[in-house]
Design a protein that fits this description.
Elements lengths: L1 H29 L4 H13 L9 H11 L4 H8 L3 H14 L5 H20 L1 H10 L6 H17 L4
Length: 159
């Protein structure tokens, strides 16, 4: 069962991570140090899943949410799929924000992940609440919102 679960996650996560690394490579080549572009390269491939039924759409986000209910060993194995992405993006953010010490960078990176993950795994709740205020969910607009929000938080001066 554990091996099957790992393969199901890998089938969806690997293409997202490959896209992230491709986009990050383009940022590093074309606009090195552009924090918003780095953040966009990280969040857009994941959030774009929401509007891509051929990649699993909302079902993938439910699966990712389920990850947190799995035993610790399975979560750790699945999280290894993100090691290269975490390392590369942390380095790019660090180069863009040299005023952040490694501990502050660690926490801000994880806050970025959380800010991206919640709208994905609780998308139905977020969309229902958005409809209450007359907002229709638009993935591209939400990516823009999220990039601005995360970039501001990452760039904030530490106390």
């Amino acid at each position: 069962k554990d091996a099957l679960l790992f393969e199901v996650f890998a089938r969806r996560i690997k293409p997202v991570n490959a896209r992230r690394l491709t986009l990050l490579g383009a940022v590093e080549r074309d606009t090195p140090g552009d924090l918003s572009a780095i953040v966009r390269a990280f969040v857009s491939p994941a959030l774009e899943l929401l509007s891509r039924p051929e990649m699993g759409g909302r079902n993938v986000t439910v699966l990712i949410g389920r990850l947190y209910t799995e035993p610790m060993q399975i979560r750790l194995e699945i999280l290894t799929m993100f090691e290269e992405v975490a390392t590369r993006f942390t380095a790019a953010i660090s180069a863009s924000l040299p005023h952040l010490d490694p501990v502050e960078l660690f926490w801000r990176f994880h806050f970025m992940v959380g800010s991206m993950a919640f709208p994905m795994v609780a998308g139905d709740i977020v969309e229902a609440r958005a409809r209450q205020i007359g907002e229709v969910s638009d993935v591209d607009k939400n990516i823009d919102r999220l990039v601005r929000f995360i970039s501001g938080g990452l760039a904030a001066l530490p106390r």
